[in-house]
Specification:
heterodimer; A: alpha+beta; 5-stranded mixed beta sheet; 5 strands; about 15% strand; B: about 350 residues; alpha+beta; 4-stranded mixed beta sheet; 7 helices; 10 strands; about 30% helix; elongated
Chain lengths: ~170, ~350
């Protein structure tokens, strides 16, 4: 086993794991960051998308040894300080949400939610790279993220809303 | 007349639908459908579903149903319906875990029945609870429920399904009567481009108009229509389960292809509200209805573009080219007669 160090959502982290352990498993099992979901596990669906040095990657395809020294961002990094509701009926705070998360709430961009963390990270990478409200460009930016519930319409609307400066928190 | 000679509206010179590429044909297609809401025939009577509402000793209102939230919005619309019927804020209504250790059997979360059937039971339960409290206290539920609960302890209302008024009961012996208590109605228009060299279809735009009765939550309802519409477009164009000797050949997302954001057309939704009079809130089903119309609209658009009707889904390039050439489509894999089944264990 080897120690691998990286920055996760702004905080330094070190894990002592086999080098071929999937980044997805390190996030979910070693660091308890379960916001990132596993869909297909073979790089087709994009549910496990996280940002490595700002670039969207399928964390199911990335061995931990490849991300040593990088900066990783997951969906937890979009809403710092927020806690999942632990009780039925408990109200989640929306105070710290990223503008994209707000927009997904407003437009109805999430249904079952499995694609949502990856979809949000792919969209965040697109906007951070200067992406605009053009529909074709938005669709291209999330083409690696499958959604079976929404038909994509409301997801595209949400990203365009943020690109246009709307839905700010 | 050879099929290729029959020009669809999209291929007419000067048509606004005509695309730049000479070898691309465009067309539009329309499909109409209706879909029964709730279980077929005597299904709902036999299920006799129960939905319950509890005013807890602490004065909270709790919904007890077995309807599963899977993204369609059950946990959003149930508190909406109950808070509206009780005259209290949505935030004051909570939902018990959807586990029959805690909740009654309100039937399966299928058959486009949750909003209409189970939602209707909850409203009736809320009306009874409100009447009980207001009769006892003489004041409005919102102002008096907490004191009522403190004095009387927890109150639970169980509301069981009763046949909707005015219909003809379904007879299982003669198979006559109302097949469904209510029907949703849908119209779908699709615009496609067909590459005449490769047979590839690009579904560019879809307009879906769906009568789902009274709309409880417009954003969620549109989401149901858009999601169902895209599944139908996938079913029409690319999705195909292939079997060999009873085994799936494409049992993963690498081989069973579903539409990406780039494959998906722009979908415009028109919600039409013709309320169902039998349910207190007028809702009908929405889950399945949009899925019924997308594929025939796409196939009709392909026929409009090319003159060729595809009669077997999906309308893959192979099937479209075969239809254009007026020859049978390439047969899918069949159970091999001479070839032994692959032994996956070896």
């Amino acid at each position: 086993m080897t120690t691998y160090g990286f920055v996760i959502n702004g905080t330094t982290a070190e894990v002592d794991v086999p080098g071929m352990r999937r980044l997805l498993d390190v996030l979910r099992e070693d660091l308890s960051l379960t916001g990132t979901k596993e869909g297909c596990g073979e790089g087709e669906c994009g549910a496990c998308t996280v940002l490595v040095d700002g670039a969207p990657v399928d964390s199911c395809l990335v061995p931990i040894c490849q991300v040593s020294g990088t900066e990783i961002r997951t969906v937890e990094g979009l809403a710092p300080g927020s806690q999942p509701a632990s009780q039925p009926g408990a109200t989640r705070s929306t105070a710290n949400l990223d503008a994209l998360q707000h927009a997904f709430l407003v437009t109805g961009g999430a249904q079952c939610g499995i694609c949502t963390p990856g979809m949000l990270m792919a969209a965040r990478a697109y906007l951070d790279a200067g992406g605009g409200p053009d529909e074709d460009a938005i669709r291209e930016s999330i083409a690696g993220n499958l959604c079976r519930c929404t038909g994509y319409t409301k997801i595209v609307e949400a990203i365009a809303l943020v690109a246009n400066g709307g839905a700010a928190s | 007349m050879p099929r290729g000679a029959r020009a669809g509206s999209g291929t007419v010179p000067g048509s606004a639908l005509r695309t730049e590429r000479d070898r691309t044909a465009s067309g539009i297609g329309l499909a109409l459908a209706w879909h029964g809401a709730g279980f077929t025939g005597s299904g709902e009577v036999k299920l006799a579903s129960v939905a319950s509402l509890e005013l807890t000793a602490e004065g909270r209102v709790r919904i007890l149903t077995a309807s599963t939230e899977m993204g369609q919005g059950t946990k959003t619309i149930f508190p909406q319906l109950v808070s509206d019927a009780l005259g209290i804020p949505e935030a004051d209504v909570e939902i018990a875990p959807q586990d029959t250790a805690y909740v009654p059997d309100s039937g399966p979360t299928v058959a486009s029945r949750t909003a209409m059937v189970v939602g209707g039971l909850l409203i009736k339960a809320a009306q009874r609870l409100r009447a009980d409290v207001e009769t006892a206290t003489g004041g409005p539920f919102a102002a008096t429920a907490a004191a009522y609960a403190r004095d009387n302890g927890a109150t639970r209302i169980d509301q069981q399904f009763e046949p909707y008024p005015g219909g003809t009961p379904f007879d299982d012996a003669t198979y006559t009567g109302d097949a469904y208590p209510a029907f949703g109605w849908a119209a779908c228009v699709a615009r496609v481009d067909v590459d005449l060299d490769t047979g590839e279809v690009h579904v560019r735009d879809v307009v879906a108009a769906d009568d789902i009765g009274r709309v409880i939550h417009p954003v969620l309802a549109e989401g149901q229509v858009e999601g169902g519409t895209l599944q139908a477009v996938g079913y029409a164009t690319i999705e195909e389960i292939k079997l060999r000797d009873g085994r799936y050949l494409n049992d993963r997302l690498a081989t069973y292809i579903i539409p990406t954001a780039l494959d998906a057309p722009r979908i415009s939704t028109i919600l039409v509200e013709a309320p169902f009079g039998g349910a207190p809130h007028g809702a009908k089903g929405v889950g399945e209805l949009p899925m019924d119309v997308g594929a025939p609209a796409v196939v009709a658009a392909i026929a409009d573009a090319t003159g060729a009707w595809v009669t077997d889904l999906p309308a893959s390039p192979e099937r479209i080219l075969a239809a254009l050439a007026d020859r049978p489509a390439v047969a899918g894999p069949r159970p091999a007669e001479s070839e032994p089944a692959r032994d996956l264990a070896s």
